[in-house]
């Protein structure tokens, strides 16, 4: 239980810094990162510069905790150089969600890392030198612990993905009995009452609290951006 608290603390610290630096703009810039994270936290973070052709994106810096034990540094290398059996490789697979204009993501579950599987919690945060019109980098932070033999039968270890901000233009799957179950919908607008969701087929609308959309994954599933 303590390890799970540690995971939440690291993700919460990084997310809080990101929000603090983004005041007055949609996203902070990559140049604002260096003063934030010092000490042990930085070893669990990675900074990736996105290229128009995503496969050519560059790992600006990758903390040692995200790589297999004793692996050589990947700073300045292409994401293609990332070892497949690593937590960093698991996080890299979510980079397409930030092109062209994705919001912050929370990911948790199991992954292969070094000699065996681990249980992890991570956050991926968009960065933009122009305040949010164009995402040019992603800051990732993750913590983990080893997954013990047989533990996958006791814990919910399936990968879970959650958007951390509800924004206009996002596409969600929403469970609504009035729609006959799950329905694909688009966020048509956001106001003080919540997010206005419009069913993509019937065009029926409903208003949902954004906090519930983020927290209740049994009823709301973030899909992507229109």
Report on the architecture of this protein.
By secondary structure, this protein is mostly beta strands. The protein is built from three helices and twelve strands; from the N terminus they run αβββαββββββββαβ.
Share of residues in strands: 35-45%
**Count of discrete domains:** 2
- Going across the biggest sheet, name each strand in turn: 3-2-1-6-5-4-7
Low-confidence stretches: 1-7
Termini separation comes to 39 Å
Into which percent range does the helicity of residues fall? Answer: 10-25%
SS element count, helices: 3
Secondary structural class: mainly beta
Q: What is the alpha-carbon Rg in Å?
A: 18 Å
CATH topology of the largest domain: Beta-Lactamase
Task: Note the main sheet.
Answer: 7 strands, antiparallel
Shape: globular
| Helix-strand string | HEEEHEEEEEEEEHE
Mean pLDDT across all residues, rounded? Answer: 83
| Architecture (CATH level 2) name of the largest domain | 2-Layer Sandwich
Text of the CATH class of the largest domain: Alpha Beta
Question: How many beta-strand segments?
Answer: 12
């Amino acid at each position: 239980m303590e390890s799970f608290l540690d995971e939440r603390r690291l993700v919460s610290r990084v997310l809080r810094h990101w929000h603090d630096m983004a005041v007055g703009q949609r996203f902070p810039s990559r140049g604002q990162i260096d003063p934030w994270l010092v000490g042990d936290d930085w070893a669990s973070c990675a900074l990736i510069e996105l290229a128009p052709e995503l496969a050519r994106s560059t790992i600006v810096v990758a903390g040692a905790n995200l790589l297999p034990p004793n692996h050589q540094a990947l700073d300045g290398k292409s994401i293609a150089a990332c070892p497949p059996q690593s937590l960093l490789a698991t996080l890299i697979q979510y980079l397409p969600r930030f092109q062209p204009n994705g919001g912050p993501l929370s990911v948790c579950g199991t992954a292969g890392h070094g000699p065996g599987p681990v249980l992890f919690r991570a956050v991926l945060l968009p960065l933009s030198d122009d305040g949010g019109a164009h995402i040019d980098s992603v800051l990732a932070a993750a913590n983990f612990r080893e997954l013990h033999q047989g533990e996958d039968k006791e814990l919910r270890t399936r990968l879970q993905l959650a958007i951390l901000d509800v924004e206009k233009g996002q596409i969600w799957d929403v469970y609504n009995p009035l729609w006959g179950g799950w329905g694909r919908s688009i966020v048509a607008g956001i106001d003080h009452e919540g997010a206005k969701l419009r069913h993509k087929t019937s065009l029926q609308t409903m208003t949902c609290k954004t906090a519930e959309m983020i927290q209740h994954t049994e009823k709301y599933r973030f899909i992507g951006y229109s």
